[in-house]
Specification:
The chain is mostly helical. Helices cover 72% and strands 0% of the residues. The longest helix has 26 residues.
């Protein structure tokens, strides 16, 4: 379970580094930004849920910060628009990329470097 959490955190960091790289180059990051918003909100939720599971009943008590974090992190999937809005936008861009280029690569991160 800890290995899964570490892997998810690593993927999230790489995603943010890629977005930062593209931003520094002046490239469009809107698609990657939408993907990252969804991924990170779900990833943090999953990591906190795993921590609660590992702590058992103690994880859901007020003796650790986990229960509070669990409640707070759920709001992140709503604050900047619900996941469904971002997913709709992402899907629309995938279709557009395929129509324009015959591939969906540009809608899924494009050239990584």
């Amino acid at each position: 379970m800890l290995a899964d959490c570490a892997s998810e955190l690593y993927i999230g960091r790489l995603m943010l580094l890629h977005i930062a790289y593209k931003a520094e180059k002046g490239l469009d990051i809107r698609q990657e930004n939408s993907i990252a918003k969804i991924f990170h909100a779900h990833m943090v939720h999953k990591v906190i849920d795993t921590a609660i599971q590992l702590h058992g009943a103690l994880g859901f008590s007020q003796d650790t910060p986990l229960a509070k974090w669990y409640t707070q992190v759920r709001s992140q999937r709503l604050v900047d628009g619900p996941d469904e809005v971002h997913k709709w936008k992402i899907g629309k861009n995938v279709i557009k990329a395929f129509r324009e280029h015959g591939t969906t690569a540009s809608a899924a991160g494009g050239d990584l470097l």
